[in-house]
# Entry
Amino acid sequence: MSFTAVDNAPITGFHRKLVVGCCGGPLLDGYLLGIVGVALAGATTELRLSATSVAVAGIAALVGMFFGGLVFGPITDRVGRKPMYTLDLLVLIAASVLSVFVTSSWQLIVLRFVIGVAIAADYPIATTLLSEWLPKKHRGRMFTAVIIIWYIGTALAYFVGYLLTEMLGEAGWRWMLGSSAVLAIIVFLMRLSTPESPRWLAGAGRISEARQVIERALQTRVDLAELENIGESETERGRIGELFRGIYRRRTLFVVVFFTCAIIPLFALLTFGPRLLGSFGMGEGNASNLGTALINLVFALGCLPAMRLLETVGRRRTIVFSFALMVLPLVALGLFPAASPLLTIGFFCLYALFSGGPGILEWGYPNELFPTRIRAAAVGMAVALTRFGAAVGTFLVPLSLTGLGASTTLFIGAGITFLGFLACVAWAEETSQRSLEETGGGVAARPRARNRV
# Structure
């Protein structure tokens, strides 16, 4: 069973426009989580933030993402992808503008929390909508744009932070936080004409509407009987408890574990990148912001070879070997804390380069391993639980740097990454070149013979 009209469609201008619109959320996510790492330096001075307030402000958006993912993933499965597609951006715009006028630590923390909720709401909305429109042969390649734009967002945040610091000094922190409103407005305007997911419409019994949006968007005729069959298979209303029953329990555990193990070291580097690089002798001034921006660009470049590997050697093999390689530079950084700044940046860049496969599959796997009725709930759950782990890890990073030192902190990061490797060896499935109806079914796919690990 497959959604032939969508799965076998050639890539058109509609798909490219959809990718650009859906990538707006990850762009904002990366930008918002990166800019706070730069802005906190100026905010700490002006608002007289304590060490605890700085840590809480740094993780407030991640905590907000925990609640946003849990709440808005199931809502998106109930009411559809399109109604929520722009509403979350309006909240984000308002919170970003208000950030310019904060006068106390609690205001900053609350607004960062609200921003996190809005970002988390966008992932189950935008990534499920994108996956449900993409042809099966191009899902891996097109999803690469999602994670690349995330890294570009974080790099852009550090570049903007660098420029505003050069022009305004530490007083520029308010404009750093408010600058995300400009990006959010642009994304909002791009999304206004996006159609609803035909898979969601068919599952909701709205067969004629599903047919109309496909024919209008893709300029192709649709087999009505096929839509009716798929609609009948999705008549059961999705419930979040289904994520923890049968094969979906294992898939949920797999997604949460590998996703968490990938982003704890990543988020720690992004939020406290300048300080972490400073621990290796690069200084904690504006120059370390440029170093962190460079590392983020390498994260984006690492997605390019992974993009091809995901469709040639497969998802499973790519993610297993990526995690194995990601361990090595973290161990090297732990072993050589006195390495030259150039070598230190080199190790961080190697880690960034190897992380491309897991980075893409952080959004690919949750969308491929679950059926339409609970797909957004699965993405929301992945966002919620992984961000909670990232929040805890990010909160502990400055404490670890102070109490244990940079070397031990990096060894801990290597251990977390190795746990992700073990989870992938045990549970990763092969989903490439298959329709969402096949990959999201209740039967685990065996790895192709050439892709067995």
